[in-house]
Amino acid sequence: METATRICVGQFVGSHGVRGRVKVKSYTAVPESLFAYGQLTDESGARAFALTMTGMGKDHFLAELQGVRDRDAADALKGTRLFINRDQLPATDDEDEFYHADLIGLVATTADGEPFGEIKAIYDFGGGDMLEIAHAASGKAVTIPFTRAAVPVVDVKAGIVTVEPPAGLFEKVKPTPEELAEMEGGPAADEAVASEEDAPEAAEVEGDEGAGA
């Protein structure tokens, strides 16, 4: 069973009590769905787990696990990620919705058909999904918003997406004066020193004007 055909849906995060109950964190869109898939496996697929939910914590569930009867056995599972087969996931209701696992690994090209890179990860920092792409030309990781404007075409079956990189994506961010001051030699360092030297003079002038007033 290949890892690429399976999806991580949860993870053991600790033990609860002395009778072998485990704490498990769900990664599914509907957290309780974690318990609806039947047996889950570890990343290698070699070990299967049958979970029964017994309660809830602040950001996790409490569960009983067949074959685990004490705290030591439960603690030994901490950090183990839980997987299901990709084909166990229900179809999405919207043609513009995609499972993250289906997007990772897709090849990104521009509208002109030029290679852009490969999708490596998807993040949501609160403002919507962002695609992390390994840029083909530079080898650097870049992020673009997963919106129709920035990603107008998604063809999962063909394994490609079309991207319209936002303007200024590759523009260098101008260093702050403090960052410039830390650089050794070169025009940038000279500019930083000049700015720092100008600051006291400006303060003295302002002080004189204030006194005269």
Structural summary, described in words:
With 213 residues, this protein is an alpha+beta fold. Among the domains are: 6-87, Elongation Factor Tu (Ef-tu), domain 3 (Beta Barrel); 100-162, PRC-barrel domain (SH3 type barrels). 20% of the residues lie in helices and 32% in strands. Strand 1 (6-16) and strand 2 form a beta hairpin. Mean pLDDT is 79; it is low at 185-213.
Provide the low-confidence segments as ranges.
185-213
Provide the residue-averaged pLDDT: 79
Largest sheet entry: 6 strands, mixed
Q: How many helices does DSSP assign?
A: 4
Integer-rounded radius of gyration: 26 Å
Query: Helix and strand string, N-terminal first?
Result: EEEEEEHEHEEEEEEHH
What is the second-level CATH architecture of the domain at 6-87?
Beta Barrel
CATH H-tier superfamily of the domain at 6-87: RimM
How many β-strand stretches? Answer: 13
CATH topology of the domain at 6-87: Elongation Factor Tu (Ef-tu), domain 3
Estimated helix fraction: 10-25%
Distance between the termini: 82 Å
Structural class: alpha+beta
Shape: elongated
Percent strand: 25-35%
Strand arrangement in the largest pleated sheet: 11-10-9-8-13-12
- CATH class of the domain at 6-87 reads Mainly Beta
Features:
single chain, 213 residues, alpha+beta, Elongation Factor Tu (Ef-tu), domain 3, SH3 type barrels, six-stranded mixed β-sheet, five-stranded antiparallel β-sheet, 4 helices, 13 strands, 32% strand, elongated, disordered C terminus, chaperone, Ribosome maturation factor RimM
